[in-house]
């Protein structure tokens, strides 16, 4: 009591003491009301959850109040497991959205904030309910939860994690934003969603061995040649995932794909004058135009007669009973719509080092000899040592080989015929475009530079189409670089664009008049050991088998026409 009287006398006699007292009272009141407000007004409340019964990969929506305008350190847990930060797509004071994670079990759903935890709602995982349920396509749509790297370079392996990818790849694909200049006119109302996807995105490919591993929850895939910074998504037979972002860096320069040109191309072969038994048949392997970063759009427009196999990766395959050919003559015809881009290389070799992934399939396959590229020849081994000397930079090695061939060998416009070797070019000092492309590829492979010969046609106008061959070489962190040695050496050619110096241009750059039908050698197995086979050398595709007739076929005639361009757009 005495203390209170002394404190009262102090307040009456001292203005300072009265001021301090009022400050203490006001601060205490603010503190008390703040505590009450946090525990009463801000405590989260769940009004509903949708779905109450669902599966991992579904999107759950929680509605209620007191969640906070942003997530911060708040979280949602299902059966005691918290949702990770990457799982949320929306967090507001009255609504939360997130993807139900793969490990979600039956249990309580709770929203927790700094003010406390909500009263729980109940969730049931329908995968654990022992009753028949109607399947929902939504639950099987692929979902990407994370990508192992925010930035990568061409050829680098990334790991995509999530759910519903499928236990094996099958026909599923991973798409990346394409590195192309011409996208301004690709969103017209006349285009459908699939066309728009193909114009803007590019898939990782089997031909470059981009897919390393594929499981239902994890995909290991390389950044494909022709990809750029932007969206990544997965397409499966069950649907398409939402996109994630990735940056693609270009340490050695960024290729420029531009000047798109579209061609309508017809390919035909005629079979006639056959002599065969009733059971005999003939197989025709008609090459398809190859899909690549510079030739990303290939569509089969018409085909006659109905092919035996249409979805082979490399060929349209026809199988015809010879006794069913009317009037002893049959034409096999197919028309393709093909779009190509010109390439400007922009390569900077300054910091290019040795290949790091020499154990990878892309490297080993494309530095090894095969039936088309004799890179293990003694003549090739001796010549490559003379050309590159002590140079270790792969780009400069490739340029030395290019300069040597364009300066020392003469190119012939006429394609050679007969059973001849492209290595004759070393001795004769003169050869056709096939000789130049195969020898250049062989020399690059002998130097340890991954390379592929490319066969196709040169389109100069609708009436002037010729078979042609060139090379692509591969650099880690960059992708494929085109090299056309024969055009660089002076092969006559009428380009749609002005090329001041062909020798300089055709190392690393390419016009949009090169139409590829094969990249690398395609070894086709006979369907029967006793069948009669035909190989067509030095033509617009590199494959071991073109025709295969049954063993009961005595004779027949075949005429393969070079591809014909019916339209250029």
UniProtKB/TrEMBL annotation:
Transmembrane segments annotated in the record for this chain: 20-37
Residue ranges occupied by any Transglutaminase-like domain in the UniProt entry: 425-487
Entry superkingdom: Bacteria
Keywords (A to Z) from UniProt: Membrane, Transmembrane, Transmembrane helix
Classification via Pfam families: TIG, Transglut_core
Keyword Membrane among record annotations: yes
InterPro entries in the cross-refs: Ig-like_fold (IPR013783), Ig_E-set (IPR014756), IPT_dom (IPR002909), Papain-like_cys_pep_sf (IPR038765), Transglutaminase-like (IPR002931)
Name of the featured protein: Transglutaminase domain-containing protein
Classification lineage: Bacteria, Pseudomonadati, Spirochaetota, Spirochaetia, Spirochaetales
């Amino acid at each position: 009591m005495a203390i209170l009287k002394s404190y009262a006398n102090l307040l009456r006699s001292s203005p300072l003491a009265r001021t301090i007292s009022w400050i203490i009272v006001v601060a205490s009141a603010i503190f008390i009301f703040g505590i009450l407000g946090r525990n009463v007004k801000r405590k989260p409340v769940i009004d509903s959850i949708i779905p109450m019964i669902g599966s991992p990969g579904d999107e759950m929506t929680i509605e209620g109040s007191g969640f906070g305008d942003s997530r911060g350190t708040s979280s949602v847990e299902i059966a005691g497991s918290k949702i990770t930060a990457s799982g949320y797509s929306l967090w507001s004071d009255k609504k939360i959205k997130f993807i139900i994670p793969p490990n979600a079990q039956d249990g309580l759903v709770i929203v927790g904030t700094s003010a406390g935890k909500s009263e729980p709602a109940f969730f049931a995982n329908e995968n654990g309910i022992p009753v028949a349920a109607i399947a929902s396509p939504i639950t099987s749509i692929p979902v990407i939860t994370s990508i192992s790297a925010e930035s990568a370079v061409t050829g680098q392996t990334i790991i995509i994690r999530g759910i519903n990818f499928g236990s094996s790849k099958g026909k599923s694909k991973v798409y990346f934003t394409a590195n192309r200049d011409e996208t301004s006119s690709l969103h017209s109302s006349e285009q459908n969603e699939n066309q728009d996807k193909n114009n803007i995105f590019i898939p990782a490919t089997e031909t470059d061995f981009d897919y390393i591993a594929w499981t239902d929850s994890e995909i290991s895939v390389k950044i494909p040649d022709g990809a750029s910074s932007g969206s990544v998504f997965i397409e499966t037979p069950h649907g398409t995932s939402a996109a994630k972002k990735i940056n693609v860096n270009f340490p050695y320069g960024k290729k420029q794909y531009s000047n798109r040109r579209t061609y309508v191309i017809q390919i035909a072969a005629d079979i006639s004058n056959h002599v065969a038994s009733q059971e005999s048949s003939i197989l025709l392997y008609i090459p398809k135009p190859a899909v690549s970063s510079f030739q990303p759009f290939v569509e089969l427009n018409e085909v006659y007669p109905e092919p035996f196999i249409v979805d082979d990766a490399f060929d349209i395959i026809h199988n015809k009973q010879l006794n069913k050919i009317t009037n002893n003559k049959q034409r096999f015809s197919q028309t393709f719509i093909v779009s190509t881009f010109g390439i400007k290389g922009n390569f900077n070799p300054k910091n290019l080092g040795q290949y790091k992934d020499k154990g990878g399939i892309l490297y080993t396959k494309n530095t090894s000899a095969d039936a088309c590229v004799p890179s293990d020849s003694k003549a090739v081994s001796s010549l490559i040592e003379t050309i590159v000397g002590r140079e270790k930079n792969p780009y400069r090695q490739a340029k030395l080989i290019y300069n040597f061939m364009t300066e020392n060998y003469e190119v012939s416009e006429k394609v050679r015929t007969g059973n001849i070797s492209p290595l004759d070019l070393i001795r004769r000092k003169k050869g056709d475009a096939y000789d130049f492309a195969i020898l250049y590829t062989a020399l690059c492979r002998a130097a340890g530079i991954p390379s592929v010969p490319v066969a196709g046609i040169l389109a100069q106008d609708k009436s002037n189409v010729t078979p042609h061959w060139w090379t692509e070489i591969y650099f880690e962190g960059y992708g494929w670089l085109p090299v056309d040695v024969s055009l660089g050496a002076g092969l006559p050619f009428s380009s749609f664009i002005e090329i001041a110096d062909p020798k300089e241009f055709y190392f690393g750059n390419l016009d949009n008049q090169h139409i590829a039908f094969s990249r690398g050698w395609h070894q086709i197995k006979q369907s029967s050991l006793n069948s009669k086979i035909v190989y067509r050398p030095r033509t617009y595709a590199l494959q071991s088998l073109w025709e295969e007739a049954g063993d009961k076929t005595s004779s027949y005639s075949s005429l393969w026409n070079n591809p014909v361009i019916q339209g250029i757009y």
